Amino acid sequence: MKYLLMIYGNQEKWASIPPEVFPAEVAKQEAWNAKYKETGELLGAYGLADAAAARLVRRADGQPAVTDGPYLETKEYIASFYLLDCESQQRAEQLAADLPWADQDPVELWPVLHESPVNDL
């Protein structure tokens, strides 16, 4: 079964990490990515740009209508997401708990309810 993991962040959080420590924190995440890619349980890992780069897109008169920023006014935003393929929810919970920083910030775990056949192309 597939699961989506999401972690949240904000500029204040990233700025609080001393520059000399940041490369080691990134290396911890890359080690987690490699570990679970090797087991076949990590299908993809994606870090998102700052919320200031996000756009809200609607359709108006058949054309894209684009505005700046995410829709929700919030202090935190989705910083990264991971797609897993695990044998059970318990296993997905174990991987989520093993994420670097999971001892400091929660990780959202969502079962993937439906997968489009387009993914098989």
TrEMBL record:
Residues 1-112 form the YCII-related domain. Signal peptide: none annotated. Pfam families: YCII. InterPro entries: Dimeric_a/b-barrel, YCII. It comes from the Bacteria. Belongs to the YciI family. This is YCII-related domain-containing protein.
